[in-house]
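RECORD TYPE: protein structure
NAME: ACY2 Aspartoacylase
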Amino acid sequence: VDNPPVRRVAIFGGTHGNELSGVVLVKHWQENGAEIQRTGVEVKPFLTNPRAVEKCTRYIDCDLNRVFDPDNLGRTVVEDIPYEVRRAQEINHIFGPKGSDDAYDLIFDLHNTTSNMGGTLILENSRDDFTIQMFHYIKNALAPECCPVLLIEHPSLKYATTRSVAKHPVGKYEK
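PREDICTED:
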């Protein structure tokens, strides 16, 4: 399959405000992005849920990582709309729109976990040849360290994660 080159990449941290590894990395790269920049590729570090980060809590009104569905992204903005739904609409406007040719090519969404799963990559689509090849490259680059890949694909589910805005969504969980 001949895919167009990846030109726009976003690195998300703080989708859950109490998961601080991604927050620390994003803030570092916002101040000094030289180590993530590559010729011919725009790389944008982005703090996804700044209010939750400020309070060091998972979320303010609802889980940001569950509201990127068509209903929430299409909701009319009213005063009592949950903060994370409004934030999802903003993120979709900046990095999407979701499902469009204009969407960012790749979003890396950095998370922490309390599970003993080490560094784990999350794949949402087993037919995404680009992401599968990228994961293969990452796993080989990290060898002999273990880097499991978790497939969270289900035929009747459309994922509503922050990273699902991109053409190639990638989750990264770290213990």
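COMMENT: The chain has five helices and six strands.
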